[in-house]
Amino acid sequence: MKHRLQHIFSYGIIAIFAINTSTSLLFADEKNTMIINEIAAYEKREYEWIEIFNRSDAPVDMEGWKFFENKTRHDLTTVQGTSTIQAGNFAVIAEDAEKFLEKYPEFKKTLFDSSWSGLKEAGEEIGLLDEKGEIRELFTYISAPDTSLERKNAWLDDFSGENWAPHADSATPGAQNTTFPEISTANETKTALIKNSESTKNTEPIQNEPEHTESRSKPPPSEPDTYEPDTTEQESAQNAPDNTDDLKNIIISEFVPNPAGSDTSEEWIELANTSDRTIALQRLFLDDEEGGSKPFSLEKYAIAPFGFLVIKSRESKLSLKNSGDSVRLLLDNEKILEEIVYDDSALEDESFARDEEGTFSWSQTTTPGAENIIAEKSDTPINGNLSKNIFFSEIFPNPKGSDASDEWIELENTGESDVNLGNWKIEEKGGKTHALSHELVVPAYGWLTLYRTESGVSLNNSSEELSLFNFESTLIDSIEYEKAPEEQSFTKIRIKDHDNFWEWTEETTEGDENPSYEILSGTIEKMSDPTANGGLKSFLLKTAKGMLEIEYEAADLGNQLPETLFIPESEIEVIGKQLKQNQYELKRFTIIQRGNPVPEKKAGANSALPAALFGVPIAAFTMLNFFPLEKIKSLLAGMRK
């Protein structure tokens, strides 16, 4: 956590643009070179970020700039890259840079560290202030509670739902947004006029407020810098002006034929603009080898100066073969401007990338939307350390967002020394093995989270078996699971002074200690009355530690179960999670000895389970020993029948 000095600032009356909601398009103020392009208010508190974009034709130095939120200006500290953002490039301002980089480790662009009170998912006023304290952009964003909020057209100062939309399933920090408007003519400019639209100027003061004193931040993953102008009309490629010379500056830069995820949706091709001008791609088509997939029109795209465009196969429907194919860039769907052929078999999640001299080669480091990095496999893998203290700790196979980016495996080091995982291996169900990088280290008495991009492991939701081997191929640990619920992790639960066990839980503890429970035994003294206790279900358990209150509302045991099993003076053994002093949440239980059942109520009374159930032998109840609560409810439901 970084500590920042407070800053007091004041503003006079500053002219800003107010958006007329009846106007569909408002073109950019030339003064607003740096703009907010994507907002991740949906992320957890410490993982929030915003993406900014330089839509001008020249570099912008953001030294001394501020991020404005909650009537407060927040410092920007450069933690990656430089404070100068090149024309057509993205950068990210993160609330916690370290946590952001954990989630987006491949992000290589400029990352600023800042601090704020928490972005509101329902929308709030945010902005950018330059080094002179002048407003470069200030607006109230619309609601986006589940995914990031993307700006459709970076060249339009329209802050309504016509120019902003939630991402389909996650976010694209430092990369091209996924919301693409259509374009009009091929040479439409940023200063074009819109018929029957008006904009009004308004003046508003910004109140004097102290700046937030702490900041944390983390960087996002890189992808394409792309300009996609909006449209009111659409011309065909045949009617577009002759911009052949400009289109010669568009090149094939990188592509992935064999991604870690689905080839049908996750293959991608990257184009680059090598000029200092925005170029509309209306006359261009992408294609694979002759006679392969149907050519894909790029008529709705344009690329910013020195920017990138990434097209995924889910959109283009192009299918690149893993055993050898080609990528072609066609003019008017006829003339081949460029064709890149690969004959080698494409390894999983490797890209065929162009270097500075224009030569293509395979790279283990994919850089969608960023400058290419040619990283070849080493013939002599670097081994890490040997250790018997590394174990699987938590598995997260079925996230709410993208499985390809958000799945993770957590390893724990129970030893007193750091362990380098160089050339250690994780084996999936079916025998597929993934070697780990020597850059991965599990700290002493700590944890390491491996996302799919680091481990290469694609976790199945239906069932999976994972095995961990050291670099000498010695089996160190293994784990298996079935039917992964969404947004739950398979977690090693700690039992104080007893063996651990695994179960599904919503209490994900990525990079931190797993939940810890205790085993408590004693006699039941008293049941609570939920109607007189705000609906809280609990009972008092007399133990050697004293009187403990055991809550079972969270376990949802139902109203009949305690009347049947939790009889005063019954001796039971409880697995509980401590909530506070002398208060626990019930997780599992065992009946050791039942007390005397209460007399059966007369017919017509609000009775508990049938009287016959009271005669069930103790042995029947011992079958419940350490059963998950869902199984207990299932058994009781069967008894009722």
Task: Describe the model.
With 641 residues, this protein is mostly beta strands. The longest helix is centred in the C-terminal third of the chain and has 12 residues, at 629-640.
Task: Label this structure with key terms.
641 residues; mainly beta; seven-stranded mixed beta sheet; five-stranded antiparallel beta sheet; 10 helices; 8% helix; 35% strand; globular; disordered N terminus; disordered C terminus
Number of E-state strands: 45
Q: Give the neighbour order of strands across the main sheet.
A: 8-11-10-4-3-14-15
Low-confidence stretches: 1-28, 181-239, 558-562, 600-641
Secondary structure category: mainly beta
Terminal CA distance reads 58 Å
**What overall geometry do the principal axes of the alpha carbons give?**
globular
Largest sheet: 7 strands, mixed
Strand content: 25-35%
Q: Rg from C-alpha positions?
A: 30 Å
Number of helices: 10
| Average pLDDT level | 76
| Overall helicity | under 10%
Can you lay out the helices and strands and say which pair or pack?
Layout: E1 2-3, E2 13-18, E3 34-40, E4 49-54, E5 60-61, E6 66-69, E7 72-75, E8 77-80, E9 84-85, E10 90-94, H1 97-103, E11 110-113, E12 125-129, E13 135-140, E14 149-151, E15 164-166, E16 200-205, E17 214-215, E18 226-227, H2 244-247, E19 250-256, H3 263-266, E20 268-273, E21 279-280, E22 284-287, E23 296-297, E24 302-303, E25 308-312, H4 313-316, E26 325-331, E27 335-342, E28 351-354, E29 360-363, E30 390-396, H5 403-406, E31 408-413, E32 419-420, E33 425-427, E34 433-435, E35 441-442, E36 447-451, H6 452-455, E37 463-469, E38 475-482, E39 489-495, E40 501-505, E41 516-527, E42 538-543, E43 546-551, H7 560-564, E44 571-580, E45 583-593, H8 611-614, H9 618-622, H10 629-640
Parallel strand pairs: 10-11, 39-41, 43-45
Antiparallel strand pairs: 1-17, 2-16, 3-4, 3-14, 4-10, 5-9, 6-7, 6-12, 8-11, 12-13, 14-15, 18-24, 19-20, 19-28, 20-25, 21-24, 22-23, 22-26, 26-27, 28-29, 30-31, 30-39, 31-36, 32-35, 33-34, 33-37, 37-38, 39-40, 41-42, 41-44, 42-43, 44-45
